[in-house]
């Protein structure tokens, strides 16, 4: 919602709260066949992408989200060569994935091509790896793609989706998790953004139980700050196909040949520390 005095406000009804940013101008708006996309220039957060009234990313803080959606899972897998990103149309996640030299192929499956084209125009730093020969872009329904994917053909699946409403609702369904598990190799890892632990524990609990029901060996959730998302506190949930998540490749993290702004060894450890209320909610 845009006020007369140039404040962009996203209301979170379930949390009884709202987040506002002062804007300089609206740079773009359009209605695609799937959703309404708006781009704003803000005073402090840089450019912001808003989809159906919800802030998807800003130039100021997106690095936290994109790094935490990619690096923990990739450094947990023993040899992540084949990666699939579901959603992720802004291309920040594929940029982080392709920083890993051992990744040989990364397929991004985004329903709405306009998200990617607008990211290339208004968030070019997120799209630095779009021309990497290892990157493949499929603009289609990821649920359908996963349903027909070859078994054991992928090492890591990253579900970088919008909230579980509208086109993204099916990405939070048990059937989709079953297809993801079948598509993963024996050491495969799936990671999915899983909303706020303060406002959306019901979603997190459903996801974890659904992942366990379809046969994932272990499910964990990691926490990280995200100032422009509801409550300022976000999660990603990881599921391992056949193995218990043991030690991540800490030596490789410590000597990584690329720059990160948020993720490091200490953050990896800290993100896995579950608050007391979180543990109690999961047992309830």
Describe the fold and architecture:
The chain has helices at 62-76, 92-97, 113-122, 142-147, 174-183, 201-213, 250-254, 265-271, 276-283, and strands spanning 7-12, 17-31, 36-42, 47-51, 54-58, 82-87, 105-109, 135-138, 154-160, 184-193, 218-225, 233-240. By secondary structure, it is α/β, with parallel strands linked by helices. The strands form two sheets. The protein has a seven-stranded mixed sheet, with helices on both faces. The chain has a five-stranded antiparallel sheet with strand order 1-2-3-4-5, with helices on one face. The protein is globular. The model has no long low-confidence stretch (mean pLDDT 95).
Q: Summarize the main sheet.
A: 7 strands, mixed
Instruction: Name the strands of the widest sheet in spatial order.
Output: 8-7-6-9-10-12-11
- Supply the number of helical segments: 9
Helical coverage, percent range? 25-40%
Q: Which segments are poorly predicted (pLDDT under 50) over 5 or more consecutive residues? A: none
Strand content: 25-35%
Number of strands: 12
Query: Element order, helices and strands?
Result: EEEEEHEHEHEHEHEHEEHHH
User: Judging from the principal axes of the Cα atoms, what is the shape?
Assistant: globular
Which class do the helix and strand fractions yield?
A: alpha/beta
Q: Indicate the radius of gyration in whole angstroms.
A: 18 Å
Give the overall average pLDDT: 95
Question: Termini, distance in Å?
Answer: 36 Å
SSE topology:
Blueprint: E1 7-12, E2 17-31, E3 36-42, E4 47-51, E5 54-58, H1 62-76, E6 82-87, H2 92-97, E7 105-109, H3 113-122, E8 135-138, H4 142-147, E9 154-160, H5 174-183, E10 184-193, H6 201-213, E11 218-225, E12 233-240, H7 250-254, H8 265-271, H9 276-283
